[in-house]
Amino acid sequence: MVKVSETPATALIKKLGITWTEHVYDYVEHGGTSVSSSALGVDEHHVVKTLIFENDKRAPLCVLMHGDRKVSTKELARQIGVKRVAPCAQADAERHSGYQVGGCSPFGLRKPMPVFMERSILDLEKIYINGGRRGYLLGLAPQTVIDVVKPTLVDVAIED
User: Fold this and answer.
1) Domain ranges of the chain
2) Exposure of 54 by Cβ count < 10 A (0-12 exposed, 13-18 middle, 19+ buried)?
3) Helix 8-15 crosses helix 142-149 at what angle (to 10 degrees)?
4) Which residues contact 119 (CB under 8 A, 6 or more apart)?
5) What percent of the chain has pLDDT over 90?
6) What does the alpha-carbon distance between residue 143 and residue 146 come to, in Å, rounded to a whole number?
7) pLDDT tens digits for 29-51?
8) What is the DSSP secondary-structure string of 38-65?
9) Is 125 exposed, middle or buried (CB count within 10 Å of its CB: 0-12, 13-18, 19+)?
10) Is residue 1 pLDDT above 90, yes or no?
11) What is the tens place of the pLDDT at every residue in 91-122?
12) Closest by CA position to 61, among listed 156, 126, 160, 159
């Protein structure tokens, strides 16, 4: 197995004494979670995307979503009480998160920002979430995300 150097995400969860499994795969530009789930032989629904959005005041926010679902920005805006939510431009997402797009993790974000997690992720026994580098996922219990990141649970998934 390839050993990946530490990232802000793994440094944080290691410091907290959390155990995880490492899953390395060949990153494909714009390949998305279908590439990682296929490479790891896991259901795409269990791969959790870390997406950086902004509200109508251009304040960043992080959304955790199943790999095989999209975020209803209209429903997210309604549930969190803002006028509009839209994906950040790549440069803004990287500046806010401290991670490259495609390698963004909810653990160890550069800027404090609200994190929202699709509620049904908690129904899964194990999830695969980015470890802070392209081509690198962490396998862990979804409760770990709740314990570490303390996200607000939302119901904003739509079929991809």
Assistant:
1) 8-159
2) buried
3) 90
4) 153, 154, 155
5) 92
6) 5
7) 889 999 999 999 999 999 999 99
8) HHHT--GGGEEEEEEEEETT--EEEEEE
9) exposed
10) no
11) 999 999 999 999 999 999 999 999 999 999 99
12) 156
Phi, psi (rounded to 5 degrees) for 21 = -110, 145
CATH topology of domain 8-159: YbaK protein (3.90.960)
Tell which phi-psi region holds residue 32, choosing left (phi > 0), alpha (psi between -120 and 50) or beta. Answer: left
30 phi, psi to nearest 5 deg: 60, 20
Quick one: which of 128, 133, 105, 142 has its CA closest to 41? 128
Q: What average pLDDT does this structure show over 47-64?
A: 97
Residue 9 contacts residue 107 (beta carbons within 8 Å): yes
| Distance separating alpha carbons of residues 104 and 108, to the nearest angstrom | 10
Helices (H), the chain: 8-15, 32-40, 73-80, 90-97, 142-149
Look up tokens 């509620």; give the residue: 119
Coil/strand/helix, residue 115: strand
